[in-house]
């Protein structure tokens, strides 16, 4: 039951982002597959991390693979402006990821140091010969 609620929450968040970013179904599906992969196979990175962080990082990496620009900052601004979100709470979520009792990092550091390593092997399948492989 808990996992169903987690999946539902992440799916709802992704739908909101997809609408605001005007993502086509193919890109949304690829992002969704990555979110599912992280939730089921990379569970270590979920400890103390809000699910929105996983969705945001998944969106960013898939768009980066396809050389689609919004920047990380653009995606975070969209996140903060989703009507159902509290802007102050959103800011806390992206700026204060507590890895352990003494280490707090922001979303950019989480993406670069943790998420990228967890997602890289999965995302490689989305790459084609025309796409810049730098993720």
What is the topological layout?
Blueprint: H1 2-21, H2 25-41, H3 51-65, H4 72-81, H5 87-95, E1 97-98, E2 104-105, H6 107-123
Antiparallel strand pairs: 1-2
Helix pairs in contact: 1-2, 1-3, 2-3, 3-4, 3-6, 4-5
CATH topology: Cyclin A, domain 1
Number of continuous helical runs: 6
Structural class: mainly alpha
Report, as a whole number of angstroms, the end-to-end distance: 34 Å
C-alpha-based Rg, rounded: 14 Å
CATH architecture: Orthogonal Bundle
Tell me the strand order in the biggest sheet: 1-2
Explain what you see.
- This protein is mainly alpha-helical and 135 residues long.
- The protein has one domain (2-126): Orthogonal Bundle (Cyclin A, domain 1), CATH 1.10.472.10.
- Helix content is 65%, strand content 3%.
- Strands 1-2 form a two-stranded antiparallel ribbon.
- A hairpin with a 5-residue loop joins β1 and β2.
- α2 packs across α3 (51-65), α3 packs across α4 and α3 crosses α6.
- It starts with a helix and ends in a 12-residue tail after the last helix.
- Mean pLDDT is 84; it is low at 129-135.
């Amino acid at each position: 039951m808990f996992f169903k609620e987690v999946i539902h929450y992440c799916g709802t968040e992704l739908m909101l982002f997809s609408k605001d970013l005007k993502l086509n179904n193919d890109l949304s599906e690829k992002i969704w597959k990555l979110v599912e992969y992280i939730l089921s196979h990379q569970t270590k990175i979920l400890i103390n991390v809000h699910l929105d962080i996983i969705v945001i990082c998944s969106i960013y990496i898939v768009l980066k693979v396809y050389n689609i620009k919004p920047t990380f900052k653009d995606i975070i601004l969209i996140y903060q402006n989703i009507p159902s979100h509290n802007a102050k709470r959103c800011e806390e979520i992206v700026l204060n990821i507590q890895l352990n009792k003494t280490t707090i990092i922001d979303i950019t550091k989480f993406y670069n140091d943790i998420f990228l390593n967890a997602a890289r092997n999965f995302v490689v399948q989305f790459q084609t010969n025309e796409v810049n492989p730098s993720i």
